[in-house]
Amino acid sequence: MASKTGSKTDGGVKPDKQNRVQQLRGFCCTAQCGSISKAAERMQLSQPSVSLQIQALEREFKVKLFERRGPKISLTSEGKALYQLASPLVEQIDRLPESFAAMRGEVESGRIDIAAGESTILYLLPQFVQQYMDGYPKVEVKLHNVTGRKGLELIRAGEVDFAVGSMIDQPEDIEYRPKFTYPPVLITPIDHPLCKLKRLTMRDISRYPLILPPKHLTTRGIIEQGFQQHNCSYQVKLEAGGWEVIKKYVELGLGVSIVTGICLTGDERVAAIPVNRYFPMRTYGIVYRKGKHFSPQAKRLIEIMGDDRHRQPGSGRRRSQAK
């Protein structure tokens, strides 16, 4: 009598191994989605089909790959180990036609998905995306305008090739490759009293009302921490989201603000004073899942962004004042 996994077909192949790639694809998709039903929807399969794929792997390796935590499922330690091995393999197989074309010097079509925040999309990416699209006009580029937390969700779910942004706390399953560094800058209205000081201190800044981003943003936390570390109080007069909005209200004379140099183009009607003595420099770079196998399209854009011949994005005539 044939056993569940040990019997062989006429061709001498174990039944559970006939669809090994599809089983691993179902397993990886479930790990990324945290749900068998969501994985089945993405793969356009029935939920029982994906369940059977996972069960076949569990029988073969004699381990439990998932455990249920409330409404979601999560990987066991054995599941995490298999995912680290299987995910790059599945991605390479799925991208085999594109990779083969790239080996022959062809990157003529395809798509690249990038997650980034608004400031990154506005100030850092334009010159790189423009050069990329000029070189590869048939490749579709999709920019996902999302917060940092949502960007990590998209990375883990495999819905974007990578993210571009700033990272302070790096999760264990995420790689961060910094590429650009920007200084913290105090911006004030033109001819503001702070512009006339030879040596600006935190206490000088604290005398004037601030225009700051919302509290849930990392930048706001960094600014508040800087004042606390120097035992200085501060007054938030206006809370506004987005560097463009903040710069506009500073121009109107409603307060001063501390921004990251990435947002200064040199066209603003504000004075820019470096304050890196009091606040940390910010890096921006490539964020992706550990073990990620990049498509040829994604690799080309990363190479363009890493080209040292490019000037620092966002640099303008006023950037020299903010270094």
Describe this structure in words.
The chain is an alpha/beta fold and 323 residues long. The protein has three domains: 15-91, Arc Repressor Mutant, subunit A, CATH 1.10.10; 97-181 and 283-315, 3-Layer(aba) Sandwich (D-Maltodextrin-Binding Protein, domain 2); 184-280, Periplasmic binding protein-like II (D-Maltodextrin-Binding Protein, domain 2, 3-Layer(aba) Sandwich). The chain is 39% helix and 20% strand. The protein contains twelve helices and twelve strands. It has helices at residues 20-33, 36-43, 47-61, 77-94, 96-103, 118-124, 126-135, 148-156, 202-206, 218-229, 243-251, 296-305, and strands spanning 66-69, 72-75, 111-116, 140-145, 162-165, 174-182, 184-189, 210-212, 236-239, 257-260, 270-274, 282-289. Helix 10 links the parallel strand 8 and strand 9 (236-239). 31% of the residues are buried. Mean pLDDT is 85; it is low at 1-13 and 308-323.
List the helices and strands and how they pair.
Layout (H helix, E strand, L loop, with lengths): L19 H14 L2 H8 L3 H15 L4 E4 L2 E4 L1 H18 L1 H8 L7 E6 L1 H7 L1 H10 L4 E6 L2 H9 L5 E4 L8 E9 L1 E6 L12 H5 L3 E3 L5 H12 L6 E4 L3 H9 L5 E4 L9 E5 L7 E8 L6 H10 L18
Parallel strand pairs: 3-4, 3-5, 8-9
Antiparallel strand pairs: 1-2, 5-12, 6-12, 7-10, 7-11
